[in-house]
Write a structure and sequence with these properties.
528 residues, alpha+beta, Nucleotidyltransferase, domain 5, 4 domains, 49% helix, binds zinc ion
């Protein structure tokens, strides 16, 4: 047949004689034969030979043509190895660029499949290959991926980034190792323990700098596995720690945000001027349980027995036990949920603006809506509204914690005007929030300018003297890991690269539809 245009279309078949092309059952079958005079190398000794022992048929699948699957029916030779010192008697010839030993796919198809497997792995890869005219099961895709050689270095990179990522959120975590200079994934470890990291560092010596999250297992693993390396607490995690502390502080302080006017010191509470209203059902239940718990207590019962007898959670029992009176208990319960009234503040303000300024009426209205707040809380709220009537713009209600936290933690240069106003408002409402704001600013400046060496101590001291427990705790923690923190706030390395790669991992995990076995994942991310 006319071979010229065929060679143009199928250059990988140039080395063989194409004899026939036919469409059989939806598959393009190319019948071909290796040339009798072509020499091939013995796989053991490399000696070329063209002396045929026999011929046999193989049928490697090839890349599709015009959307049609292609199979090559190739007549290949078994050749003698004529090297007298070679233990091999004969071998199957391979055609460069076309066949591979043991492979049921041509070199070209295998390249495509591998590229797809690296990008998409199992199920998604299998689907794409079907579109490309080759049917491969997802298991085959995964196996091909696993069979790829791993290009893992014997040495660790000079600057190593370490972070964890969830294989299955809250259940299984792994560790990702990144070359911070090139941004490439170096390896993926099967857990996030210090032992595993230490073992890896011992097996891959040479790391000089390790960027990690704060303290904990990685600090320990890095110290044991690479005692000579400088450890750096990465800035992303430092900022996250600060953000968490700010979050907790803000939420705790929010109920106190509207400060009393200068002349109104906590006035003694007047006795309830209106008749007591019947308790809502939940309070009734609390009252009964409180009485029951304390009755058992006076008979000498402990938490376990009370919990068993009243069929209550031991935690709940302890709460009842701690409160001497039911009023104490209710107050504590309210204290634990300071947002309780805030959620209804808008309603109260609206009613107040409508002219209903009597706390007892408002309390009754809330109770009628099924809201359980004490009359005292409502009264205090109304007193506050009387002192500082709601502004025309807003409701006078404390701004939402989430919005305030976001505003506080955003960069002042890029902060939206409304966020600026929010920060200003919160700082006016609360001296403590002003302290928080100023501490955030100090930390951000230090982090941005790499001033850790000169500024960290003073900043930690400010936290410790702030009177804000959350920031005091943060400072204590940072002090325990001081060297790494100082380095993190002074040196240029940061975790942007690690984060980027963790995101890449997440994307791959989604694509592999849960078949993200660690080995597959490791192959994925360590392929160049
Ligand atoms: Zn040989």
């Amino acid at each position: 047949m006319d071979v010229e245009p065929l060679c143009l279309l199928l250059p990988h078949l140039a080395a063989v004689e194409v004899q026939r092309v036919a469409l059989v059952g939806g598959v393009i079958r190319i019948e071909a034969r290796t040339r009798d005079d072509a020499a091939a190398q013995c796989p053991d000794c490399g000696t070329p030979s063209a002396r045929a022992h026999s011929r046999y048929q193989r049928h490697p699948a090839d890349t599709a043509i015009g959307g049609q699957p292609v199979a090559i029916d190739l007549s290949a030779r078994r050749l003698f190895c004529d090297n007298s010192v070679c233990p091999r008697h004969s071998f199957a010839e391979q055609v460069d660029g076309l066949t591979l030993r043991y492979s049921r796919r041509t070199t070209g198809l295998l390249e495509v499949v591998r590229a797809v497997a690296i990008a998409l792995a199992g199920r998604a890869g299998s689907r794409l290959m079907a579109v490309l005219g080759s049917v491969l099961s997802r298991t085959t895709m995964v196996n091909l991926l696993l069979a790829l050689p791993t290009a893992r270095p014997a040495c660790a990179p000079r600057v190593l980034g370490v972070d964890d990522f969830a294989l299955r959120k809250r259940y299984v975590y792994g560790t990702i190792l990144i070359d911070m200079e090139s941004g490439e994934v170096v390896d993926v470890l099967s857990d996030r323990t210090g032992d595993t990291l230490a073992a890896w560092l011992t097996a891959h010596p040479g790391t000089e700098i390790i960027c990690r999250d704060r303290a904990g297992a990685y600090a320990d693993g890095a110290t044991r596995g690479a005692p000579g390396a400088l450890q750096i607490a990465d800035r992303w995690h430092l900022w996250k720690n600060l953000a968490d502390a700010v979050d907790a502080t803000t939420r705790r302080l929010r109920p106190r945000w509207t400060p009393p006017p200068p002349d109104a010191d906590p006035a003694p509470e007047e006795p309830d001027a209106w008749p007591a209203r019947p308790d809502p059902p939940i309070v009734l239940r609390h009252r009964e349980r409180h009485a029951a718990v304390h009755a058992l207590m006076t008979r000498g019962a402990g938490v376990t027995r009370i919990a068993a007898e009243l069929r209550l959670d031991p935690k709940t029992v302890r709460k009842f036990m701690r409160a001497d009176t039911i009023e104490d208990f209710l107050a504590t319960a309210r204290g634990e949920r300071p947002q309780n009234l805030d959620r209804h503040a808008e309603y109260l303000v609206t009613r107040f603006n409508e002219g209903c300024t009597r706390a007892d009426i408002l309390h009754a209205e809330l109770t009628a809506q099924g809201v359980h707040v004490s009359s005292r809380t409502v009264r205090r709220f109304v007193q506050r509204l009387r002192r500082e009537p709601p502004t025309t713009t807003g409701t006078g209600v404390a701004p939402k914690a989430t919005a305030v936290i976001k505003a506080l933690l955003s960069h002042p240069d890029g902060r939206a005007e409304e966020d600026n106003l929010l920060v200003k408002e919160v700082c006016t409402r609360s001296l403590e929030m002003e302290t928080v704001h100023s501490l955030i600013g100090g930390f951000a400046t230090m982090m941005q300018n790499r001033w850790g060496i000169t500024h960290l101590d003073a900043w930690l001291a400010r936290c410790e003297n702030s009177g804000l427990p959350e920031l005091e705790t943060l400072a204590r923690g940072l002090r325990q890991d001081q060297e790494a923190v100082r380095a993190g706030l002074s040196l240029e390395w940061n975790s942007g690269k690690v984060e980027g790669n963790v995101n890449r991992l997440k994307m791959l995990k989604r694509q592999t539809y849960g078949r993200a076995r660690l080995a597959v994942l490791a192959k994925h991310v360590t392929q160049p």
